[in-house]
Design brief:
This protein has about 300 residues and is of the alpha+beta class. Helix content is about 45%, strand content about 15%. It has ten helices and 13 strands.
Length: about 300
């Protein structure tokens, strides 16, 4: 792999790691303490917070070990999405472990240089102090630390998550100003990030927006897009729209009011809405969904 390609990959995965840390913040943090849940779990099991983290981390490491064992045994590798999810979680646990080590040991014995004044929150400052310094120097606008507790540095503006039509619009934890859309209450590992192509994906790779307004427009378009289905009638297979019994996708890849069957049978050259085989109808539906706009005939 060439150096430039690796550098691009490293930035992409670092941004992904911080975005996941943002979206999963409720799994770890409470009362402005990023490590709250590990401390709480430690109290419940009468072990240290680090031991509690170790137990939670083990299940991720066991999964990665299983994937590696399969690979080294000559089996087909698991999907790229699977490796992304597991390795991203693993990197985040590395960060959370280092945060615990800093808080419990190195800040206390003086081997850590620290992260500013006592008023500064340790966990909000721990992840990227170098980028923070560079950003504050170069930025044309005032900067502040991300309110989600991930350690990112952002311009002073509204960076709080916003609920909108069943989704949550979140600010990316990278320095670059960008937003992503996550399905509300979705579990980790499922398709929950909404891209501009109006489809849901497991990761945020290409699902970023420059403004909240742009993200809202995408959510609105997703909510209003037609849901197509292939059905059978006496005349043949047709493609209907779930939320309107009078709309059909014809073979010009435009949604019309009616199938066009009568007009076609009368000899008029009009887009037709029936197909001789289910596979043909499904191919037209797929072509429409992959890039054609919804229109009215």
């Amino acid at each position: 792999m060439r150096n430039k390609v690796f550098d691009k990959l490293a930035k992409q995965e670092t941004d992904r790691m911080l975005d996941v840390m943002c979206s999963k913040s409720s799994d770890y943090a409470k009362d402005d303490d990023k490590l709250f849940n590990f401390k709480q779990a430690g109290r419940m099991d009468n072990v240290s917070p680090i031991e509690a983290l170790r137990g939670m981390w083990l299940k991720h490491r066991a999964s990665i070990q299983q994937g590696l064992d399969e690979l080294l045994a000559g089996k087909k590798p698991r999907s790229r999405e699977w490796w992304i999810e597991k390795l991203t979680d693993d990197r985040n646990y590395n960060l959370l472990l280092f945060a615990q080590l800093e808080e419990e040991y190195f800040l206390k014995d003086g081997t850590s240089p620290g992260y500013g004044s006592k008023e500064d929150d340790l966990i909000d400052r721990i992840f990227d102090p170098l980028s923070a310094a560079v950003s504050l120097i170069k930025a044309d606008t005032p900067m502040k630390y991300c309110s989600c507790g991930c350690g990112g540095v952002k311009p002073v503006e509204d960076d709080k998550p916003e609920e909108f039509m069943g989704f949550i619009i979140r600010r990316s934890c990278s320095i670059e100003v960008k937003w992503f859309i996550e399905l509300k209450n979705a579990k980790s590992g499922v398709e929950r990030f909404l891209y501009a192509d109006l489809k849901l994906y497991k990761h945020t790779n290409n699902g970023y927006y420059k403004t909240k307004a742009e993200a809202r427009a995408t959510i609105t378009a997703y909510k209003n897009k037609p849901v197509l289905h292939v059905r059978h009638a006496l005349t043949g297979w047709y493609i209907g729209v779930d939320n309107d019994d009078n709309l059909y996708l014809r073979d010009d890849l435009v949604i019309h009011d009616g199938t066009g069957a009568t007009a076609r049978h009368n000899g008029k050259q009009e887009a037709y809405g029936y197909y001789p085989a289910k596979e043909i109808a499904e191919a037209y539906m797929k072509a429409y969904e992959e890039g054609h706009r919804c229109g009215q005939g």
